[in-house]
Design a protein that fits this description.
mainly alpha
Length: about 150
């Protein structure tokens, strides 16, 4: 019985070795190759991801720098515009002030001229009453000149 068990075991091993083992080995080799390819692909993907991360970080840093420059330019432009507006407002205020001074000066001259005329009329009227006659224009001018001194 040991003999027949050994013979049947040997036949079974031979059959397994001949027909069953090659497909199993083939499947295992394919599986091993598939795993190696997957590991290799994963490594390549990891390297690509790292490269993309570095590239994205550089782009983000560049974008931050650009944004910072734009903000600085906007601040400078705002300050320049503010200065221009203040300068124009100062000039306009100065012009208004100068115009007001001129208006006041001309108004003062007009009021003084009007006052002189009224005073001269009053002097003429007073002189006519005192003298009792009409005063000539030359006399009138002399009296006015003396009164204004």
């Amino acid at each position: 019985m040991i003999f027949w068990n050994t013979v049947s075991f040997a036949i079974l091993v031979f059959l397994m070795y001949k027909w069953v083992l090659p497909p199993i080995i083939s499947v295992m080799k394919e599986r091993q190759k598939s795993i190696e390819d997957s590991v290799l692909q994963a490594e390549l993907n990891r390297k690509k991801t790292e490269e993309l991360m570095v590239e994205h970080k550089e782009k983000i840093a560049e974008a931050n720098l650009t944004a910072s420059k734009i903000i600085d330019q906007a601040k400078a432009e705002g300050e320049r515009t503010r200065s221009e507006i203040i300068g124009r407002a100062d000039k306009q205020a100065e012009l208004i002030l100068e115009q007001t001074r001129e208006d006041l000066s001309s108004e003062k001259k007009r009021i003084l001229s009007e006052a002189k005329r009224e005073i001269s009329d009053l002097v003429v009227m007073a002189a006519e009453k005192v003298v009792g006659r009409t005063i000539k224009k030359e006399d009138n001018l002399k009296i006015i000149e003396e009164a204004l001194r």
